[in-house]
Design a protein that fits this description.
131 residues, alpha/beta, five-stranded mixed beta sheet, 5 strands, 48% helix
Length: 131
């Protein structure tokens, strides 16, 4: 009878340990989900950093015409034509905004210089990063 009582006690201890482990895992998952929501709930970065739009903010987001800018290791193209950063800023200022794709092989300095030129021209930037 003593062995049976010990076996029952061990099983109860195992069940209690499993329940505690499950409660801790659920609590940890809730904390991680809350942190993820706070950090990424409104999109990557929460509207801060280089992905935030800059410029005059004129026009509606859906109706605004934007020039298509692509920054690669080969240089900068606007609507498929190779241009320098000043020309890209001038073209996109006329269009009212820029939809920029920065590829993974692009030089950071090229993108930084273009971003500065677009910001100086008050061009609204919509950034996409291609990997």
């Amino acid at each position: 009878m003593s062995d049976l009582a010990k076996d029952v006690a061990k099983e109860l201890d195992r069940r209690r340990f499993r329940r505690r482990l499950i409660v801790i895992a659920v609590w940890l998952a809730a904390v991680i989900a809350a942190l993820y929501y706070v950090r990424c709930g409104r999109g990557s970065g929460g509207g801060e950093g280089p992905q935030a739009g800059t410029g005059s903010g004129t026009g509606s987001g859906a109706a605004m015409k934007r020039c298509a800018v692509r920054v690669t290791a080969q240089g900068i193209t606007v609507d498929g034509k190779s241009v320098n950063r000043e020309t890209a800023a001038a073209i996109c200022k006329q269009a009212g905004g820029a939809e920029v794709v920065v590829t993974g092989d692009a030089r950071e300095g090229d993108w930084a210089a273009l971003r500065g030129a677009l910001s100086a021209a008050n061009v609204d930037i919509l950034l996409h990063e291609a990997r």
